[in-house]
């Protein structure tokens, strides 16, 4: 039986060898070789471009943050709450920075990420923690441990739960009908090409997370309950936890921006009609840290 198998295998290889010497075989070999060379060339070209970009970023200056993020939105500085959170933090801390949109996702595939003094860091929370230590607590905070605990709980509520409802509404329920026009022209073109695959992938993600298993009414029950909780925590204070803003305010402002301006017109209407405290807070933060808001939007 083994001899038969070896003989059979030899016959197959003989036939393949003969076919390879035909016109069709040679044409296929040339095509595969050209594809391989193209792939290698593109990799080398991409590596060279990445190297050139990093050389350019290294010239930003000592302690200057290069903030890598998605392009500006048409109605807000960034449609990523985490990018907007980090940029707001940089402004609150008076840390000098420049924006790069050529490479919005870092080595971990996350946006935003930063380059500072030749070092690359990703994840908005890890970045903020690093910068807080590097610049020796640039945002003065006089918070009690209990206030820190409350601030962290509020931030997690918004960053990890409320935003999933916003994303569910943006991309699945509304099928991007509203949010597509909030992106830059470049991203609008990009999404129109990849939309079927993007939506299909996102549906699987929100189903695994859990929010995708609920109706729109049920999902917004969660979001509106969290907005009420946020307003209750804020009370009559000008900022989340005290009379002066803290690091947590960067996250709250970024998430509220997505709810107000990056979810749907009916959601913005609901918040403006039912949460005057949150609307006032958002306007206060925007006036204080984003006086150039209009200039930080895409055309």
UniProtKB/TrEMBL annotation:
<dbReference type="InterPro" id="IPR012336">
    <property type="entry name" value="Thioredoxin-like_fold"/>
</dbReference>
<dbReference type="InterPro" id="IPR036282">
    <property type="entry name" value="Glutathione-S-Trfase_C_sf"/>
</dbReference>
<comment type="similarity">
    <text>Belongs to the FAX family.</text>
</comment>
<dbReference type="InterPro" id="IPR036249">
    <property type="entry name" value="Thioredoxin-like_sf"/>
</dbReference>
<dbReference type="InterPro" id="IPR040079">
    <property type="entry name" value="Glutathione_S-Trfase"/>
</dbReference>
<feature type="domain" description="Metaxin glutathione S-transferase">
    <location>
        <begin position="225"/>
        <end position="285"/>
    </location>
</feature>
<feature type="domain" description="Thioredoxin-like fold">
    <location>
        <begin position="81"/>
        <end position="175"/>
    </location>
</feature>
<dbReference type="InterPro" id="IPR050931">
    <property type="entry name" value="Mito_Protein_Transport_Metaxin"/>
</dbReference>
<dbReference type="InterPro" id="IPR026928">
    <property type="entry name" value="FAX/IsoI-like"/>
</dbReference>
<protein>
    <submittedName>
        <fullName>Failed axon connections</fullName>
    </submittedName>
</protein>
<dbReference type="InterPro" id="IPR033468">
    <property type="entry name" value="Metaxin_GST"/>
</dbReference>
<dbReference type="GO" id="GO:0005737">
    <property type="term" value="C:cytoplasm"/>
</dbReference>
<dbReference type="Pfam" id="PF17171">
    <property type="entry name" value="GST_C_6"/>
</dbReference>
<dbReference type="Pfam" id="PF17172">
    <property type="entry name" value="GST_N_4"/>
</dbReference>
């Amino acid at each position: 039986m083994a001899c038969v198998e070896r003989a059979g295998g030899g016959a197959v290889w003989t036939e393949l060898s003969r076919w390879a010497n035909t016109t069709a075989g040679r044409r296929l070999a040339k095509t595969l070789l050209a594809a391989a060379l193209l792939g290698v060339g593109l990799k080398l070209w991409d590596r060279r471009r990445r190297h050139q970009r990093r050389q350019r970023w290294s010239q930003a200056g000592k302690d200057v943050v290069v903030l890598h993020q998605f392009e500006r939105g048409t109605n807000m500085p960034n449609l990523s709450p985490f990018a907007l959170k980090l940029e707001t933090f940089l402004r609150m801390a008076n840390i000098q920075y420049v924006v790069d949109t050529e490479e919005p996702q870092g080595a971990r595939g996350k946006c935003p990420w930063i380059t500072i003094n030749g070092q690359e860091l990703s994840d908005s929370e890890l970045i903020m923690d690093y910068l807080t230590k590097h610049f020796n607590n640039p945002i003065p905070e006089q918070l009690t441990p209990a206030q820190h605990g409350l601030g962290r709980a509020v931030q997690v509520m918004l960053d990890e739960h409320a935003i999933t409802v916003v994303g569910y509404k943006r991309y699945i329920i509304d099928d991007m009908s509203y949010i597509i026009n909030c992106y830059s022209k470049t991203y609008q073109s990009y999404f129109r090409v990849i939309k079927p695959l993007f939506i299909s992938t996102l549906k699987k993600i929100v189903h695994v997370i859990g929010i995708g298993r609920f109706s729109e009414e049920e999902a917004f029950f969660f979001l509106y309950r969290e907005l009420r909780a946020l307003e209750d925590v804020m009370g009559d204070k000008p900022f989340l936890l005290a009379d002066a803003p803290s690091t947590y305010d960067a996250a709250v402002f970024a998430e509220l921006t997505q709810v107000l301006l990056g979810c749907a017109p009916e959601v913005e209407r609901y918040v403006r009609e039912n949460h005057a405290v949150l609307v006032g807070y958002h306007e206060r933060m925007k006036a204080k840290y984003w006086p150039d808001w209009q200039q930080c939007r895409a055309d």
